[in-house]
Design goal:
The chain is an alpha+beta fold. It has nine helices and 22 strands. The strands form five sheets. A seven-stranded mixed β-sheet has the order 9-8-7-10-11-12-13. A seven-stranded mixed β-sheet has the order 18-17-16-19-20-22-21, with helices on both faces. α7 links the parallel β17 and β18. α3 packs antiparallel against α4. The mean pLDDT is 96.
């Protein structure tokens, strides 16, 4: 049964929200001010038609928009989209009683994402490669993806052919693809065992597709060229499937904010350091103590630091689960600067130790405005003040927003 609704505002997940007598109704792909007909029941509906479109509605970039769950907001005018996304950070801070000036959103060209995680399936009609529909297990077989860098977007056919050899008959195959200096680094994880014959065929397909490296469930199957990522003056060979900032320019922008803020520090701690996106840059001017729970990432960081041949200052790397066992304030003695970039759950326990430490400057990076605001509240209550907050649009056309908050005593 259809119903006509008027959309009042955008929610924090990018859905249009209509206020009704029964409460809010969420309508994906609807914009504020629009009158739409919807189908379904309950608080979540499916848009059928836009009767009165918003002046802010735009033609999507991608033919798959609306089915593919990778993007939610290609249909919104750029200025309004930037204001909405910046507002996600402003609102999260306000909910924790934090009033501060939030800088304009830093955006990047659409085709700039160097890392993607594809889902692949084996079907009777051949392999399917793409992204899941929103709130569904259905995988949309994509022919294009305008948000990806050209080295990935131009090789979708080759990646699909590769998936055809590795995708199990039952279950999914995930391909984590990272564009590196030596070519594409592809890390496959499968929900079922893969036959030796299929692995051999996959290696041949990887070579034909011009990949740099292919791994399966963490084991390198073939390396045709060394995949590497430039981090300041260092070159990192990332472990298969490792977390990397999705947009190189976004990483560089975040690092510039962090290094400028901590530039005068003698000794810096980089917590949740990964393979050293901040640590290796900070080591150009400061001694660095780095910590993370990922042993492979730490090994890559240490190797990259050593390979600079003494051009960087002293850098030590420690394996530690900082969420379960944060570095204590006493252990941070001697560190006058700190940067931390935790997963989405944030780092409340670590923030409490940072608040009690003797550090004079802190850079907090987060992909979750809510947990960032919670952790900042701890630091502010511990005697710090916010110098700036900068939202970063690393995942264009999605509700995901990064932010860099700079604090000082």
């Amino acid at each position: 049964m259809s119903e006509t609704l008027v959309i009042d505002r955008l929610g924090h997940r990018g859905d249009g929200i209509a206020m009704t007598g029964a409460g809010p109704v969420y309508v994906p792909f609807a914009l504020p001010g629009e009158r739409v007909t919807v189908a379904g029941s309950g608080e979540r509906r499916r848009i059928e038609a836009v009767l009165e479109p918003s002046a802010l509605r735009r033609q999507p970039l991608c033919r798959h928009f609306g089915r593919c769950g990778g993007c939610q907001l290609q249909h919104l005018e750029a200025g309004a989209y930037h204001d909405w996304k910046r507002g996600l950070v402003v609102s999260a801070l306000a909910r924790m009683g934090i009033e501060t000036k939030v800088r304009p959103l830093l955006g990047f060209p659409a085709a700039s994402r160097r890392r993607a995680v594809f889902i692949a399936l084996a079907t009777a009609r051949g392999p399917v490669l793409g992204f899941a529909e929103r709130r569904s297990d259905t995988v949309v077989d994509i022919a294009e993806c305008p948000v990806l860098v050209a080295p990935i977007a131009d090789r979708l056919a080759g990646l699909r052919a590769l998936a055809g050899h590795l995708a199990p008959r039952r279950g999914q195959l995930k391909l984590t693809v990272l564009a590196c200096a030596g070519g594409l680094d592809v890390a496959a994880t499968a929900e079922a065992a893969i036959a030796d014959k299929a692995i051999g065929q996959a290696i041949a397909a990887a070579g034909a597709a011009g990949l740099a490296r292919l791994s399966l469930d963490g084991e390198v199957l073939a390396q045709f060229r060394r995949p590497s990522i430039a981090v300041g003056i260092a070159e990192v060979t990332p472990p298969p499937g490792v977390f990397a900032q999705a947009v190189a320019a976004a990483e560089a922008a975040m690092a510039a904010l962090v290094t400028a803020h901590l530039g005068g520090c003698r000794r810096v701690a980089d917590l949740f350091c990964g393979f050293g996106a901040f640590a290796l840059r900070l080591a150009e001017a400061s001694e660095v103590r780095a910590a993370d729970s990922d042993a492979a990432a730490l090994a890559a960081l240490d190797h990259a630091w050593r390979a600079t041949g003494g051009r960087l200052k002293r850098l030590t790397a420690e394996r530690r689960d900082l969420r379960r066992r944060p570095l204590l304030a006493a252990e941070l003695a001697g560190c006058d600067g700190i940067v931390f970039d935790p997963p989405r759950a944030g780092a409340e326990a670590q923030a409490r130790e940072l608040a009690a430490s003797g550090a004079g400057r802190i850079a907090a990076i987060s992909c979750n405005p809510a947990t960032l605001a919670r952790d900042l509240r701890v630091l502010l209550d511990g005697g710090f003040r916010l110098a700036s907050v900068t939202p970063i649009d690393q995942f264009a056309f999605t509700p995901h927003v990064e932010a860099v908050a700079l604090l000082e005593r």
